[in-house]
């Protein structure tokens, strides 16, 4: 299993959860802390990292992409600045697409694979254009990829947390999503990359109560 963004808050939890399940996990990040170097904004870096995984382990069964920083790191004063929106989309949705594209060919040839992207519930809410657009773009990208590999043994899904805290609140305010912990997210990801999740593809699944008061079909 390759976890892109494995040194981040969510990525670390995913790595730990998958290792606890007995998976061989390769953590990847821009600085390579505890794993290999992979800059998901650069095609050659993505290709080099995946080549390293194949050289070491001979296979690539699953990929989790959790490489982008929290939406709370975006500058609220630049909420409608096209430059910030473009940067955010490149760092999240296009980063996911680069990694997924490089992985899908390998997985299709093997007849098996699991790809999971970490999006966010602000994809379904207004108030942060860059945060909404980058997450919605990731979900739409994943659905397109899932449809392109249907029937091949490869699945593509996304996980959409609300606010992530080590000690999430249990209450959920109207018009907001529920909070979740990194371990909550990691538990869902572990299921989605497992062999038993094979009937699930093209889905965006919320972690923490999905936005209270909103129906999304």
Please name the defining characteristics of this protein.
Rossmann fold; seven-stranded parallel β-sheet; globular; 7 strands; 217 residues; alpha/beta
Describe this entry's structure for a reader.
- This protein has five helices and seven strands.
- It starts with a strand and ends in a 10-residue tail after the last strand.
- It has 217 residues and is of the alpha/beta class.
- A seven-stranded parallel β-sheet has the order 3-2-1-4-5-6-7, with helices on both faces.
- It has helices at residues 9-20, 43-57, 82-110, 129-148, 182-192; strands spanning 2-4, 26-29, 36-37, 62-65, 113-118, 154-161, 204-207.
- Helix 1 (9-20) crosses helix 5.
- It has one domain: NAD(P)-binding Rossmann-like Domain (Rossmann fold), CATH 3.40.50.
Determine Rg (CA atoms, Å).
16 Å
Weakly predicted, low-confidence segments: none
Reading the helices and strands in chain order gives EHEEHEHEHEHE
Query: Number of helix segments?
Result: 5
The overall pLDDT, averaged over residues, is 93
Spatial sequence of strands, sheet with the most strands: 3-2-1-4-5-6-7
TL;DR of this structure?
The protein has helices at residues 9-20, 43-57, 82-110, 129-148, 182-192; strands at residues 2-4, 26-29, 36-37, 62-65, 113-118, 154-161, 204-207. By secondary structure, the protein is of the alpha/beta class. Strands 3-2-1-4-5-6-7 form a seven-stranded parallel β-sheet, sandwiched between helices.
């Amino acid at each position: 299993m390759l976890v892109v963004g494995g040194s981040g808050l969510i990525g670390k939890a995913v790595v730990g959860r998958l290792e606890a399940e007995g998976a061989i996990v390769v953590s990847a990040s821009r600085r390579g802390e505890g794993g290999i170097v992979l800059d998901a904004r650069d095609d050659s870096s993505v290709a080099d990292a995946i080549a390293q995984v194949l050289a070491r382990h001979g296979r690539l069964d699953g990929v989790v992409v959790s490489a982008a920083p929290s939406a709370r790191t975006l500058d609220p004063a630049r909420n409608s600045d096209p430059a910030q929106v473009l940067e955010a989309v490149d760092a999240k949705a296009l980063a996911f697409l680069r990694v997924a594209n490089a992985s899908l060919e390998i997985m299709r040839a093997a007849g098996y694979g699991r790809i999971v992207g970490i999006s966010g519930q602000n994809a379904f809410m207004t108030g942060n254009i860059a945060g909404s657009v980058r997450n919605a773009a990731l979900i739409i990208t994943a659905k397109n990829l899932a449809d392109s590999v249907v029937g091949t043994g490869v699945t593509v899904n996304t996980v959409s947390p609300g606010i992530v805290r080590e000690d999430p609140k249990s209450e959920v305010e109207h018009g907001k999503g529920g909070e979740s912990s990194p371990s909550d997210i990691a538990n869902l990801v572990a299921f989605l990359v497992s062999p038993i999740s094979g009937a699930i593809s093209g889905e965006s699944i919320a972690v923490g109560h999905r936005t209270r008061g909103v129906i999304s079909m």
